[in-house]
Amino acid sequence: MKEVAKNNYYLPNDKPPIGRMLLLGLQHVLTMFPATVLVALLVGFHINTVLLASGVATLVALILSKLKIGTFIPLYYGSSFSYLAAIMAITKAQYGVVASDELIRTAQAGIVCTGAINILAGLLIHYCGGKTFINKILPPVVTGSVACVIGFSLGYTALQNASGGAFGVTDNGAWWLAAFVTLLATIFFSVFLRGKGFIGMLPILLGAIVGYVVAIPLGLVDFSLITQSEFLVVPHITLPSFTSDLSITAIASIGIMAIATIPESTAHLFQISLYVDKLAEQKGREKSGLSKHVGFNLVLDGIGDMINGLFGGAAGTNYGENNSLMVITQNYSGYSLICAAVMAIVLSFSGILSGVVRSIPTAVSGGLSIYLFGVIGMQGVALMIEEKVDMFDPRNLAIGAVIFIIGVGGHIGYANGLMPIPLLQSIFPDGWPAIATGALLGIVLNLIFRVFDKKK
Question: Is the CB of residue 36 less than 8 Å from the CB of residue 78?
Fold first, then answer.
């Protein structure tokens, strides 16, 4: 452990002073909270339970990574938008309405299954050559393109939140004003406070505060969420059901979404490894080389989904939003993320604290999301540039083109991101999930090209 008090950056094993750690942890919570809670609201899960599972999954992953490889893998585990359509098809959820325990338990069976798939994939990759092996199956053109799709396909969600369109708001001038002020303030803090001391590491927190203050006179802050909150609440825990009539459908439709989150998670690890090693090189410190633990990272992903599936949390993955935050602030401290995980767990039991964070207007979180989701996509671009992906190679062009068009076009263009493909309707009665379909086709194209190259 290296305790760093004065530096304006933190590598994975650096431990900030307690005051800074609390603020940095809070910033991580604010970053993950909008997306994690939004997923819970969309799929009909209990918010406090989803927060609890998110914090526990992150805490377990950080502790295991430190024990296993001697360094933290600085990633936060939250609910993934990639699973929205598949889970909603089971829970039949309406926004903000909690689904029945029976339907939630059925969906949990699929979430446990996707965790098992991630663990098996991670072990296979670990024992078959690690990064060398996965680069054959998931080369940078696939992982980078999927990361781009995950970020850019969420652009419509960010704009819907910023404008109030997700809630049927038509007189939305106040929403747009709060969102744009939040966005511009966050960008201003990110760019012009960089390297200006500790305050330069808090752009998301500062942007959220500015947006919140602006939103109050616009009438967008509902203080009743704070004043009417119970002091203490107990998260609603449910166990997965593997005997429901829909259990097989849930396992097939939710489990297969690992196709999207495996390359997404791999891309996140490669991205964070790239930036951590670049920072270490600039500061004359030892590089962590996190990318070589790609198989173990997927095992941690799977354990996280197992925890979600057993507790009643939504399926997830490590968060690109928090990756973006770390890149912006140059804070990769695992201890800050442990602090955030503990805060999330405490938040899940506290009605008042939960009310405070929930009182942040959706317009403000939408303004933050425009920036954070965009950075996720741009990190995918950065990954392909760093890995020197040849975009003049027709193979790479074909793989990237298919992933982008099917992933982004299908996710935005069709209801719930489900493409109306009339095949395997017993498994996908409402359509094929666009992001997973694009990722799978990209993987298949890459394998076909490899086979033909070997024959040649």
Answer: yes
pTM over 0.90: no
Residue at 1 is within a domain: no
In this structure, what token pair is assigned to residue 214?
A: 């602006």
Rg of the chain in Å (alpha carbons): 21
If DSSP codes are grouped into helix, strand and coil, which group holds residue 284?
coil
Which among 347, 341, 225, 314 has a CA at the least distance from the CA of 39? 314
Within-domain flag for 447: yes
Which parts of 283-433 fold into alpha helices (H)? 294-311, 320-329, 334-349, 351-358, 362-386, 394-404, 410-413
DSSP string, 39-74: HHHHHT--HHHHHHHHHHHHHHHHHHHHHHHSS---
- In a domain? residue 91: yes
Specify if 27 maps to a domain.
yes
Stretch (H or E) spanning 214: helix 203-215
How many domains is the chain partitioned into structurally?
A: 1
Q: Which domain holds residue 197?
A: 8-455
One digit per residue, pLDDT tens: the chain, 456 residues? 555 555 678 999 999 999 889 999 988 988 887 778 777 877 889 888 999 999 999 999 999 999 999 999 999 998 887 677 678 778 877 655 788 899 999 999 999 999 998 999 889 888 886 667 777 777 888 888 887 887 888 788 888 888 887 777 777 888 999 999 999 999 998 888 876 766 776 787 788 889 999 999 998 888 888 888 788 889 999 999 988 877 887 887 787 777 767 777 887 888 899 899 999 888 889 888 888 888 899 999 999 999 999 999 998 888 877 888 888 888 899 999 999 999 999 988 988 876 776 788 888 888 988 888 888 788 788 878 878 888 899 999 999 999 999 988 988 888 767 788 888 776 677 777 787 788 889 989 999 998 887 666
The candidate with the shortest Cα–Cα distance to 370, out of 81, 159, 185, 146, is 159
